[in-house]
Design brief:
By secondary structure, the chain is an alpha+beta fold. Helix content is 38%, strand content 25%. One of its GO terms (molecular function) is iron-sulfur cluster binding.
């Protein structure tokens, strides 16, 4: 594992915070280790225009979420769907096997949200609450500004 790259992402995570113009909100939680994350995503013209996250979790969850946001920023949804846990681990110069559940939770949540986004007619809102792998994932597709429609009702 590349300790320096990992620690940089864990201690100085990229793209942290709330994204006011998000049109997709994804929450994911790992019942085994109590990690929780929320991604706020702005998708336009089938591209991830912006992404931010908030998190409650270990340093590996922070680092993997930071690395994932960097990987998907500006990418097409097809590219996002092609990413896997190994791509995230590669950005961090590797992760130990016992920590691979962290990138698995993050990428599983993002994939579930992209699938819901694509299945939702433009201009409509939708939500899904599902178990993906062993993680609870709640995705919300918004049709109004985040501040008007985001609900913490599903907070994990």
């Amino acid at each position: 594992m590349g300790e320096e790259t990992f620690l940089d992402h864990a201690r100085n995570p990229r793209n942290v915070g709330l994204l006011e113009d998000a049109n997709v909100v994804i929450q994911a939680g790992d019942p085994e280790c109590s990690d929780k994350l929320i991604f706020f995503v702005r998708i336009e013209e089938d591209l991830v225009r912006n992404i931010k996250f908030l998190i409650e979790g270990c340093e590996t969850t922070v680092a993997t979420s930071s690395a994932l946001t960097g990987l998907v920023m500006g990418q097409s949804l097809d590219v996002v769907l092609a990413l896997d846990t190994e791509d995230i681990a590669a950005v961090l110069d590797g992760l130990p096997v016992e920590k691979m559940h962290c990138p698995t939770m993050a990428i599983s949540a993002l994939h579930a949200a992209v699938r819901l986004y694509r299945a939702t007619p433009r201009g409509e809102a939708s939500s899904a609450d599902e178990v993906v792998d062993t993680f609870r994932v709640v995705s919300q597709i918004l049709n109004q500004p985040l501040s008007q429609v985001y609900s913490s009702e599903y907070d994990l």
